[in-house]
Amino acid sequence: MRPDDFARLLDTHGPPLVLYARQWCDAPEDVVQEAFLKLVALHQPPRAVVPWLYRVVRNAALDANKAARRRQRREEAVARPVRWFAEPEIEGLDAAAAVDALQRLLVEEREVIVARLWGGLSFEDIASVSGCSASTAFRRYQAGLDALRKELGVPCPNRSPNA
Question: Is pLDDT at 156 greater than 60 in this prediction?
Answer without folding.
Answer: yes
